[in-house]
Amino acid sequence: MSKSSYKNSLLQITLPTLTSFNEHHRELIKLAVNHSSISLIIHVSCQEIEFYKNYPTECWTEISDLLNFLYISGTKVSYENSKHFLEIDVIFEKWNGYNIELVKETNFDVFFGSKAEQSRLQEFNSNRKKASLPEIHIDIFDTKTPSPNNQDFKHNFNENPKIFQTVAVGGTFDHLHAGHKILLTLTAWITNKRLICGVTDDCMLKSKKFKEYMEPIDTRIAKVTKFLNTIRQGLSYEVVPIYDVYGPTVTDPDIHALVVSRETISGSELINEERQKRSFGILEIFVIEVISSTNPSLKEAELKELKLSSTYLRELCKNSETK
After folding, report:
1. HSE-up of 74 (CA within 13 Å, CB side)?
2. Which of 3.30.450.20, 3.40.50.620, 3.40.1190.20, 3.50.30.30 is the CATH number of 164-288?
3. CB atoms near residue 212 (< 10 Å)
4. Does residue 235 contact residue 195 with C-beta atoms inside 8 Å?
5. What are the beta bridge partners of residue 163?
6. Can you list the positions of beta strands (E) in 97-223?
7. Is the pLDDT of residue 302 over 60?
8. Could you tell me one molecular function GO term of this UniProt entry (predicted)?
């Protein structure tokens, strides 16, 4: 099987620390995207992720930067190669709650990795053999850029780190793309028990551009639910339609935090005002940005050119239909 014919791929990346990603990993992602046609899972192993899962808010910025780097690097290459609908998912080992190599439904064609990952990929196949699953072809990439050196990480957290039992997030989630996946992953990252995701109902989207190419509410809910269960098992997920800007946030007093994008931060202020009127606890607001100010994955101009939006993807659907 030639590299260009792989359908469903896994790229193994091992990081010494949360902040040790570099051009070596960008090159690996580029090669993996170039040789994948349907789906690519970027499987990340990092001891810091395992440690900080119990102190999630202490490394919010670092996790955000890492997700930005991985998703934006992959999306940029896929768009450059006209693979706008290549399914790219970033999964954190151990935090996800299962062994990625043993998932039968994924139907992997190949395990990708650098030379340093070869023994790990062989371990994946050994685990599959024990589970009576067929071995997967291993393809090792030769990279021009060196892998990062091993580094020790220092535990740095407050005496009383915040852990939220229930966290909410909301959005349209049409044609689930990298921006949505970053938002959902960061929400799951700070959630300890229950994640409530409000998906905007069709009745609120009549003014959306290229509305006729928008996925129906049931499809969007199903895709969000599938993605959440892919990135992390063990949480309780409630993915529900919402008919206004508030959704369950003003009817459920047990929600403790809300994750929003920079563009929708004004809505979070309205939510907290309404919760105050109802004598509910004020939600702690976590704001994400596709580009982090501390460690940008792309320059501002490059991000605009990337057109990371559902509107752009709906426009592609329209153009492909008219050809």
Report:
1. 29
2. 3.40.50.620
3. 9
4. yes
5. none
6. 110-113, 137-140, 164-171, 191-200
7. no
8. dephospho-CoA kinase activity
